[in-house]
Amino acid sequence: MKSICLYFQVHQPLRLRRYRFFDIGNNHYYYDDYTNESIMRKISDECYLPANKILLDLLLENKGKFKVAFSITGIAIDQFEQYAPEVLDSFKELAKTGDVEFLAETYSHSLASLKNKDEFVSQVQEHSDRIEALFGVRPTTFRNTELVYSDGIGEMVSEMGYKGILTEGAKHILGWKSPNYLYCNAINPKLKVLLRNYKLSDDIAFRFSAEGWKEWPLTTTKFVEWLNDQDEKEDVVNIFMDYETFGEHQKKESGIFEFLENLPKEVILKSNYQFATPTELAANYQPIAQAHVPNPISWADEERDLSAWLGNNLQDEAFNKLYELRDDVLALKDERLLKDWRYLQASDHFYYMCTKFFSDGDVHSYFNPYDSPYDAFINYMNVLSDFQLRIKEMRNVLADKSDLMEAELAEKDALIEKYRKELDDLKAQFEKAE
Amino acid sequence: MRVLMFGWEFPPHISGGLGTACYGLTKGLSKVEDLDIVFVVPKAYGDEDQSKMQLVGANGVTINQVQTHVEKFKSKHTYLEVDSQLVPYNDPDEYYTFSSRDVYGKNKFFKVDKEGKLEFSGKYGANLIEEIYKYAYVASTISMDHDHDVIHAHDWLCYPAGIAAKEVSGKPLVIHVHATDFDRSGGSVNPKVFEIEKMGMDAADKIIAVSNLTRNIVIEKYGQDPDKVVTVYNAVEPVSFEEKQAIKKGVKEKVVTFLGRITMQKGPEYFVEAAYQVLKRTSNVRFVMAGSGDMLEKMVTRAAQLGIADKFHFTGFLKGDDVFNMLKMSDVYVMPSVSEPFGISPLEAMQSNVPTIISKQSGVSEILTHAIKVDYWDIDAMADAIYGIIRYDSLSNEFKEKGKEEVDSLKWANAALNVYDVYNSTIESFVEQTNQN
Fold first, then answer.
1. Which stretches are annotated as coiled coil (chain A) (predicted)?
2. Which of A97, A426, B270, B425 has its Cα between 20 and 30 A from that of B351?
C-alpha cells in the first residue's frame, strides 16, 4: 500500500514597525502591533479557524484513516496567544484526535542552521518544548525554516535525535530520481529524508484557482486520478504546503475548502493510498537511496536555493551583523533582549530585502510592509542599531554593578582586617595580663 | 518700483534650495521701501505666507482662447521634450513613480478645467516642460494685468515666463541663475534645458548669479557679456532655534550628517566613502544620510557592502521639524557637492551651531571662512576633517562659535539691497536705450 503525507506549515511574520533614525536609543519597541494583529485576525477568520474546523470533522469522521501533519512556528504561536487564542484551542482539539502530528522547527522561523549550530540547536529545543507543552507530544520529525536542507543540516538534526526531516524534492538535487520514495541523509543514514512532490503540491497551493491553467478546475476526482497515475513502484507522495493556502492564497470562493473536505474520502475510497504522518513514513518504509545535498536547498522560488534570504549585499550585512551579537546577548541573560534578538532572526526580514524580484515581486510582495528592499533594509538596520545600543548599555550597567560590588567587598575586607587587628591586640593584652 | 517676479516654489511647498532662496530674497526685498512685488508661482495652495507680497497662482488666472494661443506660442518657442532623469530636480515623494513613467504625453492641447483655467501640478515631475510652457503662457496674461517696471525670473524654469512677459509689456528682464544644467548634470548637459537657459540669458537685460562660480559658468559656457552678469550671494533666514523643542538625541555617539537630495550633484558617494575611512579609526560616531533621490539605493547597497550599515543610517526625505531635529542632533555637517552654485544648507547648519565641512566646488565656499573646505573627491581630507571635529572639542567649539557669528552677519536684507541696485541699474540703462532708439 502506498502512502500520501499531508503536511501544512503555519507561520505569520512578526512585522517591524516604521523605526526611524530618531527612534534609535529613544524607543526600544520594534513591532507593528496594529498590522500584526489585524493580519492575524484576518487570516484566523479566513483560514485557520474554518480550515481547522473542516479538518476536525474529517479526522473524527475517518478515525484512524485520515492523518495530517503541522508545523507551527514559535512566532506564530506567540501571536496566536496574543491575538487569536481560539486558534490555538482549535489546534489542541486537532491534537486530541491522535491523528495529527506536530513537527519540530526553529522557534523564530530563523536561518540559524546556516550560521551557528549552538543557536540552531537551542532554538529547535525551545520550539519542541513549546509544542510538547501545548499539545502533549514531543515532536520526532523535523522541518527546517522554508525546508532549508543540506547534508550538514541533516547531520545536526539527527544528532538531536529526530527520526526524519522534510525538504524540497528539488529537481537539481534529484535529477532523474523521483521524490516519491523515502530517502536518507548522506552522512547519517539513520535520518530519513522526505521529499516534497512539488508538482502535485503546487497544483493545489499555487495553481488551484488559476483559470488559465489547462487543468482548471482541479477536482478531487482528478487529483486522485493523478495519484493513481504515479509509477507502480513508488511508495509515497508528499504534499507539503503553507496552511494559508486554504482561504488565503486560494480564496474561499475558489472552492478550496470543498476540495479539502472531499479529498480524504476520495483518496480512501478510490485509490490504493493511505494517509500517513511523516514519522510513520520514516518508520514504515525503507529508504531507497541517500539524498546527496552538499549545498543548502529550500522550497522557495524557481531556484530552490537560499537566494530569497541571503546573498545580496543588504541581506548579508544584516544577517552577519545580527549574529555577531550572539555572545553578548547570551552573556547578558536578559529575557526580553533574547526574545527580541530571536524575533529579529525571522527569515521574513531578510526575505523583504530580496532584490531579485524587482520585476515580478508577486510572492515577495505578499503582505510585504515595505515599498522596496532598500526600505526594508534601512528599517531593519535602524532597529538593529538600537538593539546594539541596548546591549552596550546593559553591559555598562553590569560593569558598574560589579565595580560597586568590588568596592563593597574591599570595604568589608578592610573591616575584617581592622577587627582582626583589634582581636590580636586584645589577645596580646590578655596574654600579658595573665 | 513695481517688480513682477516669476518663481517656481514657495514655502511651505518646497523641495529644495530654490524655494528657500526665493522666499528669503522676497522677504528681504519687502524691507526695501519703494518696492512692490508680484510673485507668480504655478499653483498657489493658499496657505503660503502672503504678508510680504501679493502671491498670484498661475492656476488662478483665467485663460481665454487657450487652444489657438497655445499653438501660436509653441511655434514661437519651439516644442520641447526632455528625457526623464534630466529634469532639474524631482519631487522626492514622487521620484519612484516618476522614473518609470513617460515624460511627455503627446497631448496637443493643455488641459483646461471648466472655468478655462490651466491646471498646474506645481511639482517637478514627468510633465515639467509642459508646465514651464503653460506657465510662460499664463505669464503673458499676468503681465498685462499687473503693471510693473521690471521683470525678475528665477532659474531656468521661469525664463520662458520672463521672456513672454517681457514681450507683452516691453519692460526690462532680470534673470536670476540659481543653478545651471552644468551643475545638475555634472557636465553632460541636456541640450533642451541648455537651450532654454541660453534663451533666457540672451533675452535678459541683466543676469544675477548666486556665486562667482556660477557667474563664470554663465560667462564661459553660455557666452554672456561679463558686464551683464552680477554676483549676489544668498543669505539665510535668521531662526531662533531655542524656541523649538528638540527631540532627545537617543544615540551617544557623535553624529555626522549629510542632508540633501541624494543625487550625483550632491556627491553622496564621497560621503559614504569618507564615513568608511572614519569608522576604521573610531567607533564613537554615526553617520546619517538624510534625503532621497535617484542614488539612494546605490548608497544603501554601498554602505552594506562596506559593512558599516549599523553605523550609517538613512532617514528618507525629511520635512519641517525633522530637518531641525536632525541638525540639532548633528555634530558635523558635510556638504560634499560636486558642483554647487551656492548651497544654503551649510548656512542653516552653522546657524544651529553645527560645524560644517563643505566642498571647494560650492558657491558658498567663496564667502565662508569658518568652515572646513575640501575638494569633493578628496575622501581622505574629508575623513580627516570629520575625525578632527569629532575628536577635538576645542576645534569643534571654535567652529560653532565663529561659524554662528559669521552666518548671522549674512542677511537677506543685504542681498536684497544688492538686487535692488541691479533693478535700478537695469531700468536706468533700459531707459537710456529706449531713449537712444
1. 402-429
2. B270
